[in-house]
């Protein structure tokens, strides 16, 4: 029963996607995917998504630790704010970030005198992906950190461990499996992110054009098979990366009941 | 270790505590929850900072010395093992985090882990993970982990609290045997009086942040310093009374007056179930008799109260419903 539902909801649409591009023939699919513009878009999307998820490991980990282990006024509000990127329509996030980081925006204006452009350039994409991925990381790590009893850290300190040793040898290994899950979710969200990125990216072919946008462009050009080919490539790459992360997560978790 | 003395004025958790533990001694801090015994232990370990007073270990003042520099082994009620590490890695942790200059070699660490695994009777378990062990085994691993750093004092915070009765008993006996062999200065925090009396060389009974009495198990059992200590050590009956000219008259229980060596005024009598003698006549009635176990227990309804009595071995138990009275001559009296 469960399998039937999963099949209907997930596998069937994916199967339709997999079936679609082959009307171009094997050569056509390969040719479609090896265009420099396509390769650049794929490199940009996956590179930025992995990079943003990696930085979110650190940022999300810190935010989670502060929310779990410290008490400060406004902590509950901060805790609620973490979810905001979940809830905002992606276009709203994109417009807000663009306003902030555009050369005439609050933060973009600070960077402009140094010749740095954030919006309409790659740093803008990175920041947008960081923004949408953060809550996944925080929410993945937070409960595990919460369940990690404080006395484990205290035991480590009575055994002679420094703060740094407690972080690297006790806390990080304990939250590693959850961090991998958070990384996978933040990555998955970022690689498919469309709405917030297209506002801030500038969308210049070969430079700041993300793969999902290129799919939309092809659809608008009525190149359905070409769009499906690119989509299939994204599907395959994402699946490989997520499967690898899943394997890693299982390895890290194997000793825990 | 000499002279642990500390004083607190600001916090109510622990107040005016002066205690010293001799090197090689096994001291139990016994008290109900909230009596400050765990706070005291955490102060010694350096996990809390005292508001006033001084803790000295081996004559050295521990003021401002962080937990990691105190060389104090701490065992927690819920083990606090590192779940992502093997048993061997858990035990070796305190050695591996040492700065390179004082860190033993890998071979030395491995050898010490093996010796400790033998000591805790878990040889061959080094490669397992904490989640693959039972509660009793985990607590022994936690103990080995604390012993690995060769602590100057071993602190045990309700170490048997999370274990079931049989395991608890075995581990208790094993721990006492271990202490008799290695003579490590040990402080045990517990709310279980049987545990404290069985294990410790001396018991410090705590209540509301203060130490009520310190003494050997026999001293605190036979000569409680006050009504609290008496009442906390085992079941007992408390009866209010007035003392006049060396005679105590019970005010909330119909029992005959008995001699009491206290000045005139209000007092409280405390008596254990086996010290109460049953009389054939009086204002009470036998409510229930339980013959299970080696000793017979009798419940007597008297006045508005239900009193439990343990009969001496060989005594003939009374009939349920029979009239009876209570002889409280063996009660101890304390000022109210």
What would you note in describing this structure?
- The complex is a heterodimer of chains A (257) and B (336).
- By secondary structure, chain A is mainly alpha-helical.
- Chain A has one domain: MetI-like fold, CATH 1.10.3720.
- Chain A has helices spanning 2-19, 25-33, 36-69, 75-81, 84-87, 90-101, 106-111, 122-147, 150-158, 163-192, 195-201, 211-220, 224-253.
- In chain A, 35% of the residues are buried.
- A 6-stranded mixed β-sheet of chain B has the order 4-5-6-1-7-8, with helices on both faces.
- In chain B, strand 2 (56-57) and strand 3 (60-61) form a beta hairpin.
- Chain B starts with 25 loop residues before the first strand and ends with a strand.
- Chain B folds into 2 domains: 26-231, P-loop containing nucleotide triphosphate hydrolases (Rossmann fold), CATH 3.40.50.300; 235-335, OB fold (Dihydrolipoamide Acetyltransferase, E2P) (Beta Barrel), CATH 2.40.50.
- Chain B has helices at residues 37-45, 87-96, 106-119, 135-148, 165-182, 193-199, 217-222, 227-232, and strands spanning 26-30, 56-57, 60-61, 72-75, 153-157, 186-190, 202-207, 210-215, 237-244, 247-250, 258-259, 265-271, 277-290, 297-302, 305-310, 323-327, 332-335.
- By secondary structure, chain B is an alpha+beta fold.
- The mean pLDDT of chain B is 89.
